[in-house]
Design brief:
The complex is a heterodimer of chains A (about 475) and B (about 325).
Chain A: H1 20-27, H2 31-48, E1 51-53, E2 62-64, E3 67-74, H3 76-100, H4 105-108, H5 114-118, E4 140-149, E5 152-159, H6 166-179, H7 181-186, H8 195-205, E6 217-220, H9 229-239, E7 242-244, E8 249-251, E9 256-260, E10 263-266, E11 269-272, H10 295-300, E12 305-307, H11 318-321, H12 324-332, E13 339-340, E14 344-345, H13 349-357, E15 362-366, E16 376-377, H14 383-395, E17 400-404, E18 410-415, E19 418-427, E20 429-432, E21 436-438, E22 443-446, E23 462-468
Parallel strand pairs in A: 3-23, 5-13, 6-7, 6-11, 11-12
Antiparallel strand pairs in A: 1-2, 4-5, 4-20, 8-9, 9-10, 14-17, 15-16, 15-17, 18-19, 19-22, 20-21, 22-23
Chain B: H1 3-34, H2 40-50, H3 54-60, H4 66-74, H5 83-96, H6 103-121, H7 129-150, H8 155-178, H9 180-183, H10 185-189, H11 196-205, H12 209-215, H13 222-230, H14 239-257, H15 262-276, H16 279-285, H17 287-308
Classes of the chains: A alpha+beta (about 475), B mainly alpha (about 325).
């Protein structure tokens, strides 16, 4: 039986401390009232236009990511324990990236197989010996966590490239405050609204050295047809910086320039929400129409800063994930505070044998996949699906890793049958610049279908407001 | 501000204004079609001309039957000036520039779009049309209200104003030009030969039917109508008023940017002319010629604005 964040485990149905005030409030709501609040929240989201485009739909429709009105609550103490582990992880991953793009000590020491790094598509040889400002590669990181017991959290994966979801974290909080202000008078909830300022401060802190004016920051988006476009424009707006597309920028001798109504203006920091390979057709994929020719050269010369740095994807690759505990120990000299999920690497014969024998119990993922696609969830798959997947694994074992099916914790959620438990995960957001800034809580994703473990929004998952209570 | 942003704001405003004007034109045309008449088709043809949609309509239609014209101007996706396309484009531009516009402005664009696209999928019955025209105008008023009440008076505001008033000037001039013969003094001399319904219709097209009476107390004279809609600075849709607003916006931009461009000079010239001319002078030079030249100069100004402020570099 799953660990429920409100009631704990087992039959006692005792209410856990962080949820006490919430439980009282919920008890006082009729199901009509809950439905009314749910509709009110939906209307608010529609009005604001917080939609995203769904890939694979005929006419890329605009859909809402479903929002559940019952927040997920963490106590201050629970959060402090997580925060320490997250901060350790973020520092170690950045140290790893600095190392592999310079002396590669960890590879020489044999702690990580060289081929996993060097032959990885996310490893950019063009970044060798480039020195990013403050030695930071990944300034904005989302660490996906799952919980299986009162004090048992696991890192599911690291997102060091272009993690998204921050705008939902912020809008979820705004919606909750608008819709259920009485809840906030009964709970001391740590604010999250400072995130855009903190993001801006982080970006300013990594501007090229020697500027005699305030740094000019832009958010570089592929455009309105990108599924996360809302977030790009949201963050640009909240930070008070321009949202640009590739054709708004041009590379000149002096640097990267923005085309304004008053002529060209120099840009200092580019917060890019575009994959590495599409960033610059002169340096990477020549067929990219969403990149800026010459951007990468200016970056290497230190005339502009790119956040997150090109080549930072190497740290969030699933094959590297299995070595992160090693990585943390190597660079910090300490064991990792947060645990990885037990993972079998199919590229190793022993692991492969185990995996093939236990497919119905395991979750198998593509090393280079994302968004919950290309996975096998053993326990909920049919024999035919399992056999089909087996064939894929056997054809190319190095492409896959497997993990036991974790019973993710559940949270009370408004469903068609009333308030019921649904599985959740957690994505806290970390910023690293002149200092590390961790926003309390983050994004809780919830699998809305009963019993489902798939929380990804692109596959029908929803989100909840996440609360960290203050002491 | 990005050149592209200025471009999007300018066109967002133009398309919202166009949608409102289309609703007004349709309302007038629809009302006229309800009165006893001989050749209803001719009226609708004039409406299509005023809207600049005649060629597109003729390419795909054989008759000028009321419902066909109304549907073409309201819902047809292949007509870039249909209300559907105007609201869709305005909203899309607003969405592309969400960081520049206020929340209230966005919500008015989005709200107008959501409501109208729902009507587009339902089968709107003929007796529901007047209410639909009203709602389009209401939504446009909401947008203008949000704009005037919430936006900072900076370049965002000025580019948006320019879009609104360049479009409004164009629309008013076209409405006048299509029926210019109705406004000529010789009609009055001939003894008020033409149906006063025509004059009333023209005034309704620019929401001036009742206000006209407050300004010109004596009997309906066609050249008063021309004066009202071209030269009178009290009338908010007159060419003079539009250019006063355009000049204000352009002055605002040159103050903001500390830079004068060819636009300020061109608009200044057009405004001076509108201030100094009188109707006898315009009739002498030819009303039709005056309007044609005005429409052309207005387009040229739009083009100059785009060039001076790097809309499409």
């Amino acid at each position: 039986m799953a660990f429920d964040e409100m009631h704990g485990r087992g039959r006692s149905r005792r209410c856990r401390t962080p949820y006490r005030a919430m439980a009282t409030w919920l008890d006082g709501q009729t199901s009509e009232q809950l439905t009314a609040r749910r509709q009110q929240a939906e209307a608010l989201f529609h009005r604001t236009g917080i939609t995203f485009a769904v890939y694979g739909a005929e006419e890329a429709e605009e859909r809402l990511i479903p929002f559940d009105i019952i927040p997920r609550v963490l106590s201050a103490a629970e959060w402090r324990r997580l925060a320490a582990g997250i901060e350790q992880r973020v520092r170690a991953l950045n140290a790893f990236m600095y190392d592999i793009y310079h002396r590669q000590e960890i590879l020489r020491a044999g702690r990580v197989p060289a081929d996993i790094v060097i032959q990885n598509a996310a490893f950019l040889p063009e970044m060798l010996n480039v020195d990013p400002p403050r030695g930071i590669y990944s300034h904005i990181i989302g660490v996906d966590l799952v919980r299986t017991a009162e004090n048992e959290f696991f890192v599911l994966e690291d997102n060091t490239r272009t993690p998204s979801g921050v705008s939902y974290m912020l809008e979820n909080r705004e919606t909750m405050m608008h819709m259920a202000p009485d809840l906030f008078s009964r709970n001391r909830v740590a604010p999250v609204e400072q995130y855009p300022e903190e993001l801006r401060a982080t970006l300013e802190s990594v501007a090229p050295a020697g500027l005699d004016r305030d740094p000019v920051i832009v958010v570089l988006t592929p455009g309105e047809h990108n599924s996360a476009y809302f977030e790009h424009s949201f963050l640009a707006d909240r930070m008070g910086v321009e949202l640009v597309e590739a054709h708004d920028l041009v590379s000149t001798e002096t640097g990267v320039m923005m085309k304004t109504t008053q002529g060209l203006r120099r840009v200092d920091v580019v917060y890019r929400r575009i994959d590495d390979s599409f960033l610059d057709p002169l340096a990477f994929r020549p067929d990219s129409v969403i990149g800026v020719p010459g951007l990468f050269e200016h970056y290497r010369a230190g005339r502009v800063t790119i956040v997150n740095a090109p080549g930072s994807g190497i740290a969030d690759d699933k094959s590297i994930y299995t070595y992160v505990p090693e990585i943390i120990e190597f660079y910090t000299g300490r064991p990792s505070i947060l645990k990885n999920v037990l993972t079998w690497r199919c590229r190793r014969p022993d692991d492969l044998a185990y995996v093939l024998e236990h497919l119905p119990e395991l979750v198998v993922k593509e090393v280079h996949g994302s968004g919950g696609y290309g996975m096998l969830i053993g326990p909920t798959s049919s024999r035919t699906q399992i056999e089909a997947f087996r064939a894929k694994i056997v054809a190319d074992p190095a492409r896959y890793i497997a993990q036991p099916t974790l019973e993710l914790s559940t949270c009370p959620t408004v469903t068609d049958e009333g308030v019921a438990p649904r599985h959740v995960d957690l994505r806290p957001f970390v910023l690293l610049g002149d200092r590390m800034r961790l926003t309390p809580g983050g994004l809780t994703r919830v699998a809305l279908k009963k019993g489902s473990l798939v929380v990804n929004s692109s596959q029908g998952g929803g989100t909840k407001d996440t609360w960290v209570l203050e002491d | 501000m990005l050149g592209r942003t200025a471009n999007d704001l300018f066109w967002m405003a133009r398309y919202m204004e166009r949608a409102e004007n289309m609703a007004r034109l349709l309302e007038v045309g629809h009302r006229l079609s309800l009165l006893p008449h001989e050749d209803g088709g001719q009226e609708w043809r004039s409406t299509l001309q005023s809207a600049g949609c005649e060629a597109g309509y003729i390419a795909s239609h054989d008759t000028f039957e009321t419902r066909a014209v109304v549907d073409y101007l309201l819902f047809d996706k292949s007509n870039p000036s249909s209300v559907y396309c105007c609201l869709s484009t305005a909203r899309r531009n607003g969405r592309a520039q969400r960081t520049a516009i206020t929340r209230e402005m966005w919500e008015s664009l989005n709200g107008a779009w959501i409501e109208f696209s729902r009507s587009a999928t339902e089968n709107v019955s003929s007796d529901a049309l007047p209410a639909l025209f009203d709602r389009i105008r209401d939504r446009s008023a909401l947008f203008r209200g949000a704009l005037l009440n919430t936006i900072l008076r900076n370049d965002t505001f000025y580019f948006t104003q320019l879009g609104t008033f360049v479009e409004r000037a164009d629309n008013t001039a076209r409405i006048l030009d299509v029926k210019y013969y109705v406004l000529l003094p010789q009609n009055e001399l001939v003894g008020g030969g033409l149906d006063s319904a025509q004059w009333a219709a023209m005034l309704r097209s620019v929401s001036a039917h009742r206000s006209f009476r407050w300004v010109y107390r004596d009997a309906f004279k066609p050249w008063h109508i021309a004066d009202f809609l071209i030269l009178n600075p009290q009338m908010p849709r007159s060419l003079h008023s539009c250019y006063a607003e355009i000049m204000q916006a352009l002055s605002g931009l040159s103050r903001s940017y500390g830079l004068e461009t060819s636009c300020q000079a061109l608009a200044g010239t057009m405004l001076s002319r509108l201030k100094m001319l009188d109707m006898p002078g315009i009739f002498q030079a030819g009303l039709h010629e005056f309007l044609r030249d005005f429409i052309s100069d207005n387009s040229r100004l739009a083009y100059e604005i785009a060039a001076a402020y790097h809309f499409n570099d």
